[in-house]
Design brief:
Helix content is 39%, strand content 27%. The protein is an alpha/beta fold. The termini are far apart.
Length: 292
């Protein structure tokens, strides 16, 4: 058996979740795929997959081996692409993971400009506010707003998200005034469930104030929370760029702007590799320059 071929089969099975799907993609038989996985397991000396009636899943050892297999196959594919001069051209498919609101309001225009400049490139955009594993999800670049932890990944800063607190004029008219942060404890609030904890908001006017709030609506969709705020369901907190139009039109009113603005950095996160394909390097540089 060709070990590199078996590694390629293994990574496809891990990504697609079944031997059948991998066989279809590779234009071979399920039996041939199964034999290659069995041979690889014998060579490595561990079980790579849990076999179930209708599906398979990676073992703990299989997950560790997948990272190595992807690194090896990526390096081999890189050498081959260099021979085809792919490293000097911006082509192929760029895979992105981007927060939902950012993808529409901030990324669509520069992405359009980048694609118009590079007609041989295609882009696969996965829209999600959740953190994804770049290796397991086969993502080239993830854009995330967070204080980054040491993860073995590389990152390039894009911008700082300036947090704003807001509610509809109708809601503010019908409820007690909100003059200081502590007043929020008496109000309905619309919270972002991916924040930890979602029901604790922090303010700073020289000293930090923490307010435990009542969660009227809790969601992992920023667009949903903005819409519920416009409908008068309560107070929300989101990056200011998300609601600039609504604040200007008067459909939302900013509150508590006397406090020091909380800023959350936004980064492009990508795998640590000395030999990134040109399409990845070019996109990172283009987006970084666009937002700077």
């Amino acid at each position: 058996m060709d070990k590199f071929d078996c590694l390629n089969v293994f990574t496809r099975v891990a990504r697609l979740g079944t031997f059948t799907a991998a066989a279809n993609e590779l234009n071979t038989t399920q039996s041939a795929v199964s034999k290659k996985i069995a041979w690889l397991e014998k060579q490595v000396g561990i079980t790579l997959f849990h076999r179930h009636a209708r599906a398979i899943s990676l073992t703990t050892g299989g997950k560790q081996y997948l990272r190595l297999a992807l690194k090896l196959t990526d390096e081999m594919n890189l050498v081959e692409s260099q021979l085809r001069q792919e490293q000097t051209s911006i082509s192929g498919t760029l895979k992105l993971s981007v927060p939902s609101a950012f993808s529409v309001q901030k990324l669509s225009e520069p992405l359009n400009e980048f694609l118009n400049s590079h007609p041989e490139l295609s882009v696969d955009v996965s829209v999600s506010d959740k953190f994804v594993d770049l290796v397991e999800s086969d993502i080239d670049i993830a854009i995330r707003a967070a204080y980054l932890k040491d993860s073995g990944l590389k990152a390039r800063w894009i911008m700082d998200n300036e947090l704003a607190y807001f509610a509809s004029p109708d809601y503010l008219e019908k409820h007690p005034p909100i003059e200081i942060a502590d007043d929020l404890a008496q109000h309905q609030c619309l919270t972002y469930s991916l924040s930890t904890p979602s029901n604790l908001w922090r303010f700073n006017d020289g000293q930090e104030t923490k307010v435990k709030i009542k969660e009227q609506v809790r969601s992992d969709s920023p667009e949903m929370l903005v819409q519920m705020a416009k409908l008068g369901q309560g107070v929300a907190a989101m990056p200011k760029w998300m609601v600039e139009h609504e604040l200007k039109s008067g459909s939302l009113t900013q509150i508590l702007d006397q406090y020091k603005t909380v800023k959350l950095p936004m980064y492009m996160v990508y795998k640590d590799s000395e030999h990134q394909p040109q399409r990845i390097r070019a996109f990172i540089d283009f987006i970084s320059n666009y937002f700077s």
